[in-house]
Write a structure and sequence with these properties.
Largest sheet: 5 strands, mixed
Bound molecules: oxa(dethia)-CoA
Radius of gyration: 18 Å
Shape: globular
Number of strands: 14
Helix content: 25-40%
């Protein structure tokens, strides 16, 4: 059965126990707390235990979202895990999550658009629900970037971190609970964030990505507002991918959302790629910062290069 729209019912998140400070990193590479705070905005980040996997974190976050949703395992018929850091390509993470949460035979696939992954996953779940191909979906962003980080490279090891966030999505009579997605890619710039070969590490041309993010992302965000019929002044919150606090603040200024709470989870959680948006959303919801029904603008951007954004109504 097709439905007019889809909505988010609940969020959940998981962060590894280990907190790594800037001072700790300054013992590994030539850096310092002041440089990291000034240039990136990160104060602490969470790093997973050696035996903790993307699937473990996805199960923890997904299980919490499911518990918060009031739905049962039997209700979920679609699982999407956005990740670019699975431990291995097979079996996919989504099918592992489905088995471990004892979901009976849902469609289950992984999606890799790096840092825009959650917004891609949310739109895909929305479209599946509206088309009648799914009734209730679990959308998870989970990353263990520490496995793909060169801990001797000061340009990347100070940025990337681990964690997971999740949302349960269901059908809605309203078309605007998850607004139209604006998504796309700029593959010509793909080499700006890359892993070379099977044994490679994450490398990025920081300034190229910085320039792209601070020029290309604001128009995408504004287009998502326009498609949703929401003015930036009406936004209750702006939750962009948590890449760099300077990028977040530059984009926020450009879109001009004077009444919006701006997500700044990067300060305590670092850059967790596909996990960063649902992680921030889940924590903001727990803190009571996002009133039910309030319009929130999401915009993911990064590896590919890819981007995706939409306006959602809070559960
Ligand atoms: O999530 C995926 C998307 N990724 C992004 O959005 C990342 C976008 N890019 C960035 O966030 C920033 O470009 C970085 C945080 C990666 C780098 O900041 P920056 O302000 O662009 O620094 P820079 O690369 O221009 O480097 C400035 C200086 C250089 O030294 P010299 O050549 O001026 O002497 C670097 O070698 O800072 C040096 N540097 C550092 N110094 C202390 C680079 N990394 C560090 C460090 N500590 N960790």
């Amino acid at each position: 059965m097709t439905v007019p729209g889809a909505r988010i019912v609940a969020f959940g998140h998981y962060q590894p126990a280990r907190i790594v400070t800037n001072d700790e990193l300054s013992k590994l590479v030539e850096t310092n707390d002041e440089w990291i705070r000034d240039r990136v905005g990160i104060v602490t980040r969470r790093i997973a235990a050696p035996d903790e996997t993307v699937a473990d974190m996805a199960v923890a976050a997904g299980g919490k979202a499911l518990a918060n949703s009031g739905l049962s395992a039997d209700d979920i018929d679609l699982v999407i895990v956005a990740t670019c850091t699975p431990q291995s390509p097979l079996p996919n993470v989504a099918a592992q999550v489905a088995a471990r949460l004892q979901l009976p035979a849902p469609a289950a696939f992984d999606l890799n658009t790096a840092c825009s992954g959650f917004s891609y996953g949310l739109a895909t779940a929305q479209h599946a629900i509206m088309a009648g191909a799914s009734r209730n979906a679990l959308v998870i962003g989970s990353e263990k970037l520490s496995d793909w980080t060169d801990w001797t490279d000061r340009t990347t090891c100070i940025i990337f971190a681990d964690g997971a966030g999740a949302a349960v999505v269901t059908g809605s009579e309203n078309t605007g609970d998850i607004g139209p997605v604006v998504w796309g890619s700029d593959g010509d710039k793909g080499a700006a964030i890359r892993v070379e070969g099977r044994d490679g590490y994450l490398q990025q041309e920081g300034q190229t990505v910085f320039r792209w993010a601070t020029t290309a992302v604001a128009p995408i965000a504004l287009e998502a507002c326009e498609k949703a019929g929401i003015k930036p002044a009406e936004l209750a919150a702006f939750v962009p991918h948590q890449a760099n606090l300077r990028i977040i603040e530059s984009v926020a200024k450009k879109i001009g959302a004077p009444n919006a709470v701006i997500a700044r989870d990067i300060v305590e959680s670092g850059n967790t790629s596909a996990a960063s948006i649902p992680l921030a959303l889940s924590k903001m919801t727990e803190r009571g910062e996002l009133p039910s029904g309030a319009p929130v603008l999401l915009v993911g951007f990064g590896g590919g290069l890819t981007y995706a954004g939409q306006v959602i109504r809070c559960p």
